[in-house]
């Protein structure tokens, strides 16, 4: 089988100026990063124009461990829309090196539905993640320096500091560390740890910021901890926001690349959806909507995670809303929710598909709770049978939902023309407005309960003693009017990854609540969610190589 990287090389790549020309961007407006990548200045955003163009959100049913191809469908759908005469840009998140070298491999689509140059995008790209890492770690250094500095100390209690350092790699050995060892000149010893860069609050802030002023304000609002006198300390108290924003001066600008078929793609930001808002930046989305009639964007993992946060956090914060929503379903994911082991997902099993349809049905119901019209895209795999696909079609017809098969991995935009026509019709005829699930002004417990019961299907919420204490802290800091960004497993609608399909009568346990005051939300943590993943037994990194001519292989 031809690899994704071989397909990309055979397709060829155009100078980035040619892609910019399609968007009406003069060549001298681009900030070039080599021949095939460029930064887009924020001055290109036209908020009035953006408000008149169409936004299409792509989400999915609960995935298998390998994912169900939202990015591949998003890219293929944008190709299909361009093929039927709809000027379209796809706007995506940047890949994290953790998953690239870990379990998932590359994150630029696949087959004939990719964004390129895939090697650059999957690796260091334009340095955005490095800038976010540096800004995060600058704040960590300033905190420890202030604790050490007797002359200008804020009297920070080291035991209350929750801010961690980050790096863009899966490295479980760094989850818990002790810093400040080595004597009196090396700092005050304290327990801390590392998160992966995508889990940094700086990433969440960058992806919600509207401009440099808003970026600095959000950075200054980061909650650091308490003084020994029990007074809260924020990043602004350390005068950190200016220098942190300076490190992000280029990272705040969206990145322009291209699809295999030579259409524009904007890629920017990369928060995970199981621990943060799981979608690209507000600036990237508004940039795409300023330059194109249609924008296709995705939200991470299933609708219960990325899409809920996209709608309740990103849309409410920025004032944007989708005119159409696509739910990606796969035969293999439905078999997975029909109790088929991962090793047997490629074997035909019509009855297992039928049993797994309850997961699809719940996600469709969730989409309708937001007053948005769903379109189901069946992402076709080579192992799928016509009988299995027909079972999904029949269920969608029973639910009154439009459905189309998308064969974008094998055929690119040609394989998405039916889906593109269907989605464009929905977007063009949409007369309803997106309705958030909750009001930010509601009490925190009510917001959490609403998400857990309405979206996950939970029976009740249980708070640990630690979580109850955290709720009091949130109230004391006056942050109870922020959005809620629940950290939860992506493998199940519940907080238990073993409960597949459509679980019922389960209790969601909130074990603690983290504060992301700069991002503008609080994070109730459920299950065993971790902000620093580990590598699998056989990391994807073992398959990645580079030859004597500089050609990379193994990035899927």
Description:
This protein is an alpha/beta fold and 556 residues long. Helices cover 36% and strands 18% of the residues. It contains 19 helices and 24 strands. The strands form 6 sheets. Strands 1, 2, 3, 4, 5, 6, 13, 14, 15, 16, 17 and 18 form a 12-stranded mixed β-sheet that branches. The protein has a 4-stranded mixed β-sheet with strand order 19-21-22-20, with helices on both faces. A two-stranded parallel ribbon has the order 7-10. Strand 11 and strand 12 form a beta hairpin. Helix 7 crosses helix 8. The longest helix is centred in the first third of the chain and has 21 residues, at 128-148. The chain starts with a helix and ends with a strand.
Quick take:
The chain is of the alpha/beta class. It is built from 19 helices and 24 strands.
What labels would you give this structure?
alpha/beta; 24 strands; 36% helix; 18% strand
Helix content: 25-40%
What is the first-to-last residue Cα distance?
11 Å
Strand content: 15-25%
> How many H/I helical runs?
19
Assembly type of the shown chains?
single chain
- Average pLDDT taken over every residue: 94
The Cα radius of gyration reads 23 Å
Describe the main β-sheet briefly.
Answer: 12 strands, mixed
Q: What structural category characterises the helix and strand content?
A: alpha/beta
């Amino acid at each position: 089988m031809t690899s994704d990287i071989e397909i990309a090389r055979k397709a060829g790549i155009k100078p980035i100026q040619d892609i910019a020309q399609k968007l009406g961007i003069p060549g001298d407006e681009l900030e070039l990063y080599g021949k095939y990548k460029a930064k887009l200045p924020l001055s290109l955003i036209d908020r009035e124009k953006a408000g008149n163009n169409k936004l299409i959100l792509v989400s999915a049913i609960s995935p298998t461990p390998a994912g169900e191809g939202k990015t591949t469908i998003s890219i293929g759908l944008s190709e299909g829309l361009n093929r039927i005469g709809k000027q379209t840009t796809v706007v995506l998140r940047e890949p994290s090196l953790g998953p690239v070298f870990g379990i998932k491999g590359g994150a630029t689509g696949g087959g004939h539905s990719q964004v390129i140059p895939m090697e650059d995008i999957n690796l260091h790209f334009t340095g955005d993640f490095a800038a976010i890492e540096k800004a995060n770690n600058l704040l960590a250094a300033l905190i420890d320096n202030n604790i050490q500095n007797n002359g200008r100390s804020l009297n920070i209690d080291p035991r209350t500091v929750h801010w961690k350092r980050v790096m863009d790699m899966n490295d479980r050995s760094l989850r818990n560390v002790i810093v400040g060892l080595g004597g009196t000149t090396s700092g005050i010893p304290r327990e801390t740890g590392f998160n992966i860069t995508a889990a940094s609050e700086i990433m969440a802030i960058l992806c919600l910021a509207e401009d440099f002023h808003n970026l600095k304000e959000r950075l200054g609002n980061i909650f650091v901890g308490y003084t020994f006198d029990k007074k809260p300390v924020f990043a602004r108290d350390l005068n950190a926001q200016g220098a942190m924003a300076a490190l992000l001066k280029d990272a705040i600008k969206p990145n322009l690349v291209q699809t295999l078929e030579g259409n524009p793609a904007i890629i920017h930001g990369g928060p995970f959806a199981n621990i943060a808002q799981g979608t690209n930046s507000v600036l990237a989305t508004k940039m795409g909507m300023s330059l194109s009639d249609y924008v296709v964007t995705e939200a991470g993992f299933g609708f219960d995670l990325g899409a809920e946060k996209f709608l309740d956090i990103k849309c409410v914060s920025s004032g944007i809303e989708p005119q159409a929503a696509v739910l990606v379903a796969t035969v293999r994911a439905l078999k997975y929710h029909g109790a088929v082991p991962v090793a047997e997902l490629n074997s035909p099993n019509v009855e297992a598909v039928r049993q797994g349809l309850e997961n699809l049905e719940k996600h469709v119901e969730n989409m309708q709770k937001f007053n948005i019209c769903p379109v189901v895209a069946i992402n076709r795999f080579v192992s799928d049978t016509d009988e299995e696909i027909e079972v999904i079609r029949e269920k969608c017809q029973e639910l009154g939902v439009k459905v189309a098969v998308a064969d974008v991995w094998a055929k690119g935009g040609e394989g998405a023309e039916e889906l593109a026509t269907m989605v464009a019709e929905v977007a063009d005829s949409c007369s309803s407005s997106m309705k958030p699930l909750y009001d930010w002004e509601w009490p925190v417990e009510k917001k959490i309960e609403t998400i857990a019961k309405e979206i996950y299907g939970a029976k009740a919420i249980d708070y640990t003693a630690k979580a109850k204490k955290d709720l009091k802290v949130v109230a004391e800091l006056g942050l109870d009017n922020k959005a809620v960004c629940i950290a939860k497993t992506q493998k199940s609608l519940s907080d238990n990854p073993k409960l597949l399909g459509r679980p019922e009568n389960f209790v969601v346990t909130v074990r603690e609540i983290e504060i992301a005051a700069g991002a503008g939300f609080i994070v109730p943590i459920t299950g065993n969610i971790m902000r620093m993943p580990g590598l699998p037994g056989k990391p994807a990194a073992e398959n990645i190589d580079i030859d004597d001519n500089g050609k990379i292989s193994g990035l899927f």
